[in-house]
Amino acid sequence: MSDLLKMTATEARNSLLKKEISSVELLNAYQNAMEKTEALNNYVTPTLDAAKQMAVNADKAYAQGNAGPLAGLPIGVKDLFCTKDIETTACSAILKGFLPSYESTVTSNIWQSGGVMLGKLNCDEFAMGSSNETSIFGPAVNPWSKIDGMDLSSGGSSGGSASSVAAGSALMSLGTDTGGSIRQPAAFCGVVGLKPTYGRCSRWGIVAFASSLDQAGPFTRTVEDSALIFSVMAGHDPKDSTSASLGYTNFSEAVKSGIEGLRIGIPAEYNVDGMDIEISDLWKKGRAWLEQAGAKIVDINLPHTKYALPCYYIIAPAEASSNLARYDGVRYGKRIEAETLDAMYEATRADGFGEEVQRRILIGTYALSAGYYDAYYLRAQQVRRLIKEDFEKAFNDVDAILTPTTPAPAFPLGAEVSDPITMYLNDVFTVPANLAGLPGISVPAGLSKQGLPLGLQLLAPPFEEGRLFSVANAIEKQAEFLLAPARAVGGLQ
Q1: Catalytic residue among 157, 202, 243, 252, which?
Q2: What is the CATH code of the structural domain delimited by 2-264+396-479?
Q3: Can you give the residue ranges of every domain in the chain?
Q4: Is 158 a catalytic residue?
Q5: pLDDT tens-place string over residues 206-227
């Protein structure tokens, strides 16, 4: 069993093709791992009965020689993706018991390619959070070592997705990224997290937070695995008006292409006050690694970066305020009965939404209200345009950009939850890519003095995920990062 858990997705796929292992055997190993890591609270809705049938079907496909690219590979799904007839809650009380009558486009692509669904994974309520502590199911726990006896945050909002891959209870997983919700948890948990270009993956069937920022992406153990699953996830979807009209691309081919001659930008503005010295040192190492691989390092400026965080925390709550207006207790989800319709709305939303979701709805409603729209929301959109133009100008001179993923390693659960501003600062390096619609990837690249994983972030021009994979692969090779969380199973060391 442990040997099966040591395999990367690419290795498992090759072993399945050679019939050295079966999909059912692989599933059994991960089912066992899920049981052993139950204390990490990664899964909110296991789907093992469905998984068994999917694994059987995958083995039949291999026997017939028509197995899809993800056939038999066990995959976890963030509880933000609608899954047909399987509870989808967005980890919120207001959607408890909701059974979608349809499947999201991204998960549909995964299952059609033969992927095996392990279950729905924990996340911050409606993806609003940076530590997975706003979930009604409680936080997903980071499988790396505790600090002073305290469990560590797995990051957010896709904390369960990152933690499950790091712990060995999922081979790969799906998450969403609105302001860093894939890349930050990936850095905290020591796995690879990809946020694609806005429009590269369909948003249809994903519970919306902020529609101009949300994007689906994968968590994997390696860059090669990320390219494997992303090739299936990406693609045009006529059901999503923001979906890019691009054909199929096999991103696995891009991973091993060299980076000789590529120009890598280092933005001065990402050297922020309060950044952990270990993060700064790792960033310097990343520069050196890319130079050794044949790239040229170029200093660049992104002058409006300092406005990205306040800009994001106006736009995202404003869009959330609009999107979450649909949760009113009328057609689906939780309903608190009352004497009048307005009273029912008020009681349902007050009881169904958690504190952080309520906070963001109120912020967003205020920013969109008469008399404040121009001063806040409109100005934030103007600043967003300037941030996008900064990146466009930079990419005239460089092929990719290297930055830290987070300003510090994972923190203990409960350490920052009472201070929203401190919590929001965890997204300082990731938010700009969402505002500009750029692809970004976090690669585990080192350990802190306390033995916690640290990540480096790479950004590329829109729809240049292939280039992102090639540069990320160069970092991965040089870093030689060892995935060895204290509470992982199966000897991932």
Answers
A1: 157
A2: 3.90.1300.10
A3: 2-264+396-479
A4: no
A5: 999 999 999 999 999 999 999 9
